[in-house]
Amino acid sequence: MRCACGGTRAIDGTDISRMRIPPRVPDPEARDAGRAARTFGRQVSGMLRIFSTVNGHTKPIEKPEPGSWLSLTDPTDVELTTVATACDIDLADLRAPLDDEERSRVDVEEGYTMIIVDIPTVEERGGRDWYETIPLSIIVTEDLIVTVCMKDTPLLHPFMEGTIRGFNTFMRSRFILQILYRNATMYLRYLRIIDRESDKLELRLRRSMRNEEIIQLMELSKTLVYFATSLKSNEIVLEKMTSLDRIRQYPDDADLLEDVITENKQAIEMANIYSGVLAGMTDAFGSIVSNNVNNVMRVFTIISIVISVPTLIFSMYGMNFQEGGMLGMPLTGEPWGFAAIIVIAAVIGGIVAWILTRTKMFK
């Protein structure tokens, strides 16, 4: 059952788009959450989930409340409109991370702050893992935190499961830094996986020089370039966050932000190192493949020259064939002449082959 929102009707038939929020709110701090609760109804879509930390445990809830977390994954237009209306967030800002080319940035708006960073993701295509980066938006209002992503990302799963130590949905600034810290550690983990994959490809390339391995090596190299670019964009966001007071609301937030910046810089260095190593490896194996082709051509050249020797001898006999026999050609009058000619041609061909294999030109 979908959430009621915007121009839709709730289960009881009420036109929610025409509902007006009462001018007086009992608890001013719960204004956003209270409005969201009235708008969302009793149930939410599978792509729109709400979580709240109660007594140290994070669990899903049906309605937003002060200090809760709204998670949007590949949201529909209805879900986007619902959240935009409930939380007073510009719809364009909610749609921003759904564009895979959206740049990382920090936007401070009236009533909320939006942080967009690139996160790593992996998906299986044709039995292989493909690594790429996609935008993740973190929007902080007065009482809620909203995350928007075009795909279901493992980055947020531990938060949903409540396995992150010290995680509370109502500690919004800490939540943001914990997401960014986990994002940096995921980059580091994927970079190590890519490094191991490149080592496996290197071993396979030593045994067989197929185009498939070369292409996979180039794909990994391209992935590292994307990772390095995204990490540098995230670094700019982190540097800007150091000047935002609303991001550092708790005593340990400043230290946690420094840890995030350190992890991100380490990921940038690893991506650059691995990218350089992989680029050199690709060039080296490209040269090896080219050298192997030259070796094959050398063998074919020797074979062609060796075969041309008996071909020349037999052609000379064939061109001098007349009705009365082969005039002037040696061994034509002997009964064993044909066999002798074949042996002589083979011997001459062997001598030519021996000479060519000892020549520097063909080594």
From TrEMBL:
InterPro entries: CorA-like (IPR047199), CorA_cytoplasmic_dom (IPR045861), CorA_TM1_TM2 (IPR045863), MgTranspt_CorA/ZnTranspt_ZntB (IPR002523). The keyword Heme does not apply. It is found in: Membrane. Keywords: Membrane, Transmembrane, Transmembrane helix. The chain crosses the membrane at residues 299-317, 337-357. GO terms for molecular function: metal ion transmembrane transporter activity. Residues 14-35 are annotated as: Disordered. Its main location: membrane. It is a multi-pass membrane protein. CDD domains: EcCorA_ZntB-like_u2 (cd12827). GO terms for cellular component: membrane. Residues 26-35 have a biased composition (Basic and acidic residues). Belongs to the CorA metal ion transporter (MIT) (TC 1.A.35) family. This is Magnesium transporter. It comes from Pseudoscardovia radai.
